From TrEMBL:
Keywords: Hydrolase, Lipid metabolism, Membrane, Repeat, Transmembrane, Transmembrane helix. SUPFAM superfamilies: Phospholipase D/nuclease (SSF56024). It catalyses: a 1,2-diacyl-sn-glycero-3-phosphocholine + H2O = a 1,2-diacyl-sn-glycero-3-phosphate + choline + H(+). The chain crosses the membrane at residues 470-492, 521-545, 551-574, 595-619, 631-654, 666-690. Residues 124-151, 342-369 form the PLD phosphodiesterase domain. SMART domains: PLDc. Pfam families: PLDc, VTT_dom. GO terms for biological process: phospholipid catabolic process. This is Phospholipase. GO terms for molecular function: phospholipase D activity.
């Protein structure tokens, strides 16, 4: 219903459900070649080195295969064409996976015809997660696929495919996703959605007149005709705008109509409210079966704790309702024996209800897709036999491709679909659907700690989140962590671990990676991890300067110091003043007294005269009323002079650490004297400013 479960219902003359990246990228490339006015590309991650190629891995249109060069060449070929690219201004957690200079890669030398915009308008904890491409408001694509690396695959999902490599030539496992293609009024409406997201990000919106004509490539198979399309969105609540929860309401409304079979493909299953809705419907309709296809696991420990732990909780309503015999949560594998290399990564967001309803989009079955992130899904409701046949054919094709079977074999066995899938698995077939086992997830306390941050139902309010998860169990855990940190402070100084803090040793460790282009990132990561274990920051600064040289050493050290300080500041803010004081005692109170209410100058002085370890100061500053801005400015003023001096003479530090001699000792002494001189000069300036402020 418009205004409740969807934003708008509009007509699509043609619909295609594109199975996997190769099929989508081929269709998108061909449609872009037909563009003549305006293109909107909205994504969670957009990478200029994405190979925009079809199943063969080759192109024959005379333009470059990579997305960035392709769009630049297309803009030069069509001077009237404007390409608008909106990418999420990603969280630091994803920095290692992202392209850092995307804007330059896309619009270099084009003279404004490619407009690249980073969306940083969303509240803390939210992400821009829509994946939309609109071409001249005449054809549009919506689904789970971003135009980024490590997404391309064919629907065969071979365990080994020489074409399935990333931009650096590294192979990656099989990858499955779905994108939906629509035209006519539905495409025009999606143009409005794209422009709204573009405008919300603070980018200038153009209102060019809609063109006429055909942007549908001839080779793209039309799966459905003359369908009404519902557009469902999620948008987080902000100070200026109420939240939009059409995605959530549409899930619940469509589940409530199910009578025979619900089929779901989704990357995540951690939204308990969806699990409850499914279990309730299965209880009230004994004939209803549910098949969910999801990935075997997730790439990082953080995702595993938040999402796989959530998946285990997702099962609880089904167990409580006693309906697990009519439920399957399975992952696809492409070969025998089963292995991580053969497991197909499921990234799609698809749902069918009987033969009556189909949705394809960007929304996961996790909490954040229901209220914290921006999402866009398309929903199709059957109103005639042809529409039912369309929805049926999509379901049969998708299940069949996971099993290595034709759609007609799925259709002929659908009366006992779950049993058929179980028997197929036992037959020894290479491609099959296998039960997911999450028994190896860590203890529940850690999951409860991580999940509210990684998978929030609404944008993060750190104080509210802290109150919600701060139970006796987590309190004991944090107390243990605090005692461990205090122990580490002493261990780095008074135990054999002290040998690991020698500048020469740390320099050698960092130097092992200096030939890599990721050496600065390795050094920065060392600062962040070192801060978490109270490793002496001065040792890291000296070692980084010695290993990477003056300019790179200074930039890496300063970036690492600020990132580490920011992370620990946020942890301190999350824990709060009272809890930190109760865990660390009066010393914490004395250090905080040096900081609270005194702003930038006080932080700079504490940095220059280190009255406590770097990590402890960061935690206590976060627990105070100090703003993050003042804290970082003070840290910059207090530490930059010393870092700069150490970086300028880093070679002397390395030489003395490896080959002690009179000459290297003299040079090291000069280094220390210069450092002291710079710091004293900076301290004099800051103290003078403090006196003026009084």
């Amino acid at each position: 219903m418009p205004g409740e479960t969807v934003w708008r219902r509009c007509r699509a003359d043609r619909v295609a459900v594109l199975n996997d990246g190769a099929e989508y990228f081929a269709a998108l490339r061909a449609a872009l070649l037909l563009a003549d006015r305006e293109v909107y590309i909205i994504g969670w991650d957009i990478h200029s080195e994405t190979l925009l190629v079809g199943p063969t891995g080759c192109v024959d249109d005379g333009l470059p295969p990579m997305l960035g060069p392709f769009l630049r060449a297309l803009s030069e070929k069509k001077p009237e064409l404007v390409v608008n690219i909106l990418d999420w201004d990603f969280a630091a957690l994803y920095a290692a996976e992202r392209e850092w200079n995307s804007a330059e890669q896309f619009n270099s030398g084009i003279g404004g015809r490619i407009r690249f915009c980073l969306d940083d308008s969303l509240p803390l904890g939210s992400a821009q997660h829509q994946k939309i491409v609109v071409i001249d408001d005449l054809v549009a694509f919506v689904g789970g696929l971003d135009l980024t690396v490590r997404r391309w695959d064919t629907s065969q999902h071979a365990a080994s495919n020489p074409l399935r490599v990333d931009h650096e030539g590294r192979p990656y496992p099989p990858f499955h996703d779905i994108q939906c293609m629509v035209d006519s009024d539905a495409a025009a409406a999606l143009g409005e959605v794209a422009r709204a997201r573009w405008g919300a990000a603070g980018c200038a919106v153009s209102h060019a007149q809609r063109r006429s004509g055909n942007r549908w490539p001839d080779f793209v198979t039309i799966d459905g005709r003359d369908l009404m399309v519902g557009i469902a969105r999620t948008a987080p609540q902000t100070a200026d705008q109420p939240g939009i929860t059409e995605v959530s309401r549409l899930f619940e409304a469509s589940i409530a109509t199910a009578n025979r079979l619900i089929y779901i493909e989704n990357q995540f299953t951690s939204a308990n409210e969806i699990a409850l809705a499914l279990a309730r419907r299965m209880t009230s309709v004994p004939s209803l079966r549910v098949l969910i296809v999801a990935p075997r696991g997730h790439s990082s420990w953080f995702e595993s704790q938040a999402m796989q732990g959530g998946r285990r909780s997702f099962m609880s309503p089904f167990v409580a309702a006693g309906v697990t015999e009519r439920l399957r949560i399975l992952y696809p594998t492409s070969a025998q024996p089963q292995s991580d290399a053969a497991a197909i990564m499921v990234h799609s967001k698809v749902m069918t209800v009987d033969d009556d309803f189909l949705r394809v989009g960007s929304a996961n079955l996790n909490n954040r897709s229901l209220g914290a992130d921006s999402e866009c899904d398309l929903a199709f409701e059957a109103t005639c036999d042809e529409h039912e046949a369309f929805i049926r054919s999509v379901r049969h094709r998708l299940i069949g491709h996971f099993l290595g079977l034709e759609a007609r074999e799925i259709a002929s066995n659908e009366q006992d679909l779950l049993g058929f899938i179980d028997r197929h698995r036992s037959s020894g077939a290479g491609k099959k659907l296998v039960p997911i086992e999450d028994q190896n997830i860590s203890v529940r306390a850690m999951t409860e700690f991580v999940q509210p941050i990684a998978d929030p139902r609404r944008p993060l309010d750190l104080r509210r989140t802290a109150r919600r998860i701060w139970t006796a169990r987590t309190m004991i855990g944090v107390a243990g962590i605090a005692l461990s940190l205090v122990g580490l402070m002493f261990a780095w100084q008074y135990t054999p671990l002290n040998a690991l803090t020698e500048v020469g040793y740390v320099t050698d460790v960092i130097s092992q990676n200096t030939q890599s282009k990721f050496a600065p990132l390795f050094a920065i990561a060392a600062f962040v991890l070192g801060g978490l274990v109270v490793f002496p920051v001065l040792v890291l600064i000296a070692a980084t300067a010695a290993a990477l040289g003056p300019w790179l050493g200074f930039a890496s050290s300063l970036t690492g110091v600020l990132l580490s300080a920011s992370l620990l500041f946020m942890i301190g803010r999350f824990m709060g003043h009272k809890r930190l004081q109760s865990l660390m005692g009066m010393r914490a109170l004395r250090i905080q007294d040096r900081i609270v209410g005194k702003g930038v100058v006080a932080v700079a002085l504490v940095r220059m005269v280190p009255i406590a370890p770097f990590s402890l100061v960061n935690l206590l500053a976060g627990a105070s009323q100090l703003t993050l801005r003042d804290f970082l400015i003070g840290t910059l003023l207090g530490m930059a002079p010393g870092i700069a001096t150490m970086a300028a003479l880093g070679a002397q530090i390395a030489d003395f650490a490896r080959n002690a001699s009179w000459s290297s000792a003299v040079l090291l002494g000069a280094t220390i004297a210069a450092w002291i001189g710079v710091c004293l000069g900076a301290q004099f300036v800051v103290t003078w400013l403090a006196g003026r402020n009084r």
